[in-house]
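sry for the spam today, last one i promise. C-alpha cells for design, 294 residues
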C-alpha cells in the first residue's frame, strides 16, 4: 500500500477519438508524471498502429495489401487480431472486425480508396509467423476492440513505471488497478444527460456501448456503428450495454456481442470471465456469471 505521503496526478489528452484521462498515485510527483507520460505514449503507439482513419497506419497497410500477399505485422496488431478471432469464434461470428465496408458506406469511417466486398473474419488468415493474409478482398476495422487494448497497454506502462494504484479512462473504456475502487457511472440511454451509477469497480475493467450520440440517418434508414455481421445491418436498439471483464480489451469487444445477442451472449461472457449490465427504458438487466465489481 502507498504511504500517506504519496501523491496522485491526473491528466487528460485527446486520443483514440475521445479524451483519455489517466490518474496515477506514486511516491512523488515526478514519478507519477513520468509514468503518466509513458502510459500516454503506449496509447499513442496503439493509435498509430490500428487507426482506420490514418491511411499510413499499420492497419491501413494491411487493408490495402493483405489480399495480394502475406503482410508481416507488429506483435501488438497480431495480438489484437488473434483475440478478435477468439471472440469471433466464441460468439459464432457476432463479433467481426470485417464489417468496415458498412461503416464506410454510413460515413462513420473514411473512404481511402477502392471499397472491398462483403467477406468476414473467416477470410482472414493469421499465420504463427505473425503474418496476415486476406483470402478475399476485405476491409477490417478495429474500432470495436483497439481502444480497450490501448487502455490495457497504458495500465501496463503505469505498472512498469512502479505505479501501484491508478485509473485509465478512454471515453468510457475504463480500467482500475490497485487498492482502491472506482464508482462507475453511465449515461441513461433514454436521458443521456443523466448519469446512473452501475458498479463499484476494483482491479478490473468496464466498457460501455450505447447509441445515444452515434445514431444517424442514411438514405432514410437509422444506423449506428454497431453492425450485425450476419445481416450486414445496423443494431438500432436504444439500450446501453456495459461489460465488466478482467481486461479492457475483452470488455470493449464483448459490448458488441451483448448489444447484438442480449441474454443469448451469456455463454460468451462466461467463457471470458465477464458479466454485463443492459440498461434500457424498462430498467437494468444483469447477465453473465462473473463479476469484477466490488
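last one done:
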Amino acid at each position: 500500500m502507498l504511504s500517506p505521503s504519496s501523491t496522485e496526478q491526473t491528466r487528460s489528452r485527446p486520443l483514440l477519438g475521445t479524451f483519455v484521462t489517466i490518474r496515477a498515485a506514486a511516491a512523488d510527483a515526478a514519478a507519477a508524471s513520468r509514468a503518466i507520460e509513458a502510459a500516454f505514449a503506449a496509447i499513442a503507439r496503439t493509435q498509430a498502429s490500428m487507426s482506420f482513419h490514418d491511411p499510413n497506419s499499420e492497419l491501413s497497410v494491411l487493408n490495402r495489401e493483405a489480399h495480394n500477399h502475406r503482410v508481416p505485422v507488429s506483435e501488438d496488431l497480431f495480438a489484437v487480431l488473434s483475440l478478435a478471432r477468439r471472440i469471433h469464434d466464441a460468439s459464432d461470428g457476432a463479433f467481426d472486425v470485417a464489417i468496415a465496408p458498412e461503416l464506410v458506406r454510413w460515413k462513420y469511417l473514411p473512404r481511402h480508396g477502392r471499397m472491398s466486398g462483403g467477406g468476414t473474419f473467416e477470410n482472414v488468415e493469421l499465420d504463427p509467423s505473425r503474418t496476415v493474409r486476406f483470402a478475399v478482398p476485405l476491409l477490417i476495422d478495429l474500432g470495436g476492440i483497439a481502444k480497450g487494448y490501448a487502455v490495457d497497454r497504458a495500465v501496463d506502462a503505469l505498472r512498469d513505471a512502479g505505479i501501484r494504484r491508478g485509473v485509465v479512462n478512454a471515453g468510457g473504456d475504463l480500467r482500475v488497478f490497485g487498492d482502491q475502487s472506482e464508482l462507475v457511472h453511465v449515461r441513461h440511454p433514454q436521458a443521456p444527460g443523466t448519469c446512473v451509477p452501475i458498479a463499484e469497480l476494483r482491479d478490473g475493467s468496464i466498457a460501455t456501448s450505447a447509441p445515444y450520440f452515434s445514431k444517424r440517418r442514411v438514405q432514410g434508414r437509422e444506423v449506428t456503428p454497431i453492425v450485425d455481421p450476419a445481416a450486414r445491418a445496423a443494431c438500432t436498439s436504444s439500450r446501453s450495454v456495459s461489460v465488466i471483464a478482467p481486461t479492457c480489451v475483452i470488455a470493449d469487444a464483448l459490448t458488441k456481442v451483448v448489444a447484438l445477442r442480449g441474454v443469448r451472449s451469456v455463454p460468451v461472457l462466461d467463457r471470458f470471465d465477464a458479466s454485463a449490465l443492459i440498461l434500457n427504458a424498462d430498467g437494468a438487466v444483469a447477465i453473465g456469471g462473473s463479476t469484477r465489481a466490488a
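The mean pLDDT is 92. ok im logging off now
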